[in-house]
Amino acid sequence: MRCKSADAASKLILLGEHAVVYGEAALAVPLKQPKARATVSQAQHGRSVAVELKDYNLRWDGATPPPPEAEPFARIIRAAAKRFTAVPAQGWKLAVRSQIPSGCGLGSGAAVAAAAFKAIFRYFRVPHTPQVLSELVYEIEKLHHGTPSGIDNTVIALGRPILFRKGAPAQFLATPQSRCFLIVGHTGRRHRTSEIVAEVARARGLDPVRYDTIFRDIGRLSGPGAKAFQAGRWSELGRIMDRNQELLESLDVSSPELDSLVAAARNAGALGAKLSGAGRGGCMAALTDDPLCAKRTQRALKAAGAAATFLTEVGDHEG
Ligand code: MEV
What we know:
Layout: E1 3-15, E2 26-42, E3 50-53, E4 58-60, H1 71-83, E5 92-98, H2 108-123, H3 130-145, H4 151-158, E6 162-164, E7 171-172, E8 180-186, H5 193-206, H6 208-231, H7 234-250, H8 256-267, E9 272-276, E10 283-288, H9 291-303, E11 308-314
Parallel strand pairs: 3-5
Antiparallel strand pairs: 1-2, 2-5, 2-6, 3-4, 6-7, 8-10, 8-11, 9-10
């Protein structure tokens, strides 16, 4: 039976989370690992659209109302069939599998949606641009995150490092002039991005001047951070990440688990480390240009209690 699969990367915000919600610039990169994969094939009974979520051990036959886990996929199917005449509303099956832990700041919701749309486009031969993919994923993201800034869908759909500002076209970053390693540590604690963003908004409501100053200070790091990234000035980028972490701590979005993973990474020799994503759990990321230090940092994160770690190489050795 004919089937088509597609992958989507996870994402890592290197600089600027939370401030990006308030119009400041942020720097984000796609990560090839962990990733999400979706496959479209013909449905056996041919009457409805079926969804199979392998990681949730869930099957939905499309004939009954979707269970909560399948709701985003029901919307994906509806959106694709409504917008593209080549996509029928019935007679096919979507299977999704993701290595990306959900609720940890790596863009799991956006990645599974992007993989699903890409597999649908491949199966039904729908021409599309990354921009269209990004817009479709953004609509699904709203289900997970309420009013997301758009950074997750943008970096995942475009699949390239970007400097992002809400409402403006994303700026692509050049491939760095030398390689670096990003080491991600997952605290094991899931978070709900929409709740944390709402809590930050409430706190800002009580003290707008202080919060807007912090957002601006965070935003000011992204431009120099993007330049350091492209030039491969990794020590400088590491210092900027450390400064960003301080500012995120003053927004009260770090947590004891994140702080201890960040400290472990720095002690292992990482050039910089910070939480990544909404915070209060989820993931942190550390940077180094030395492969031995990357391995050492990964071991240090595991020893400090990371529930999962991911090591990615970025730069001129990228495959
Ligand atoms: C979540 O990945 C990043 C936040 O800045 C929220 C957003 O940008 O929508 C916390």
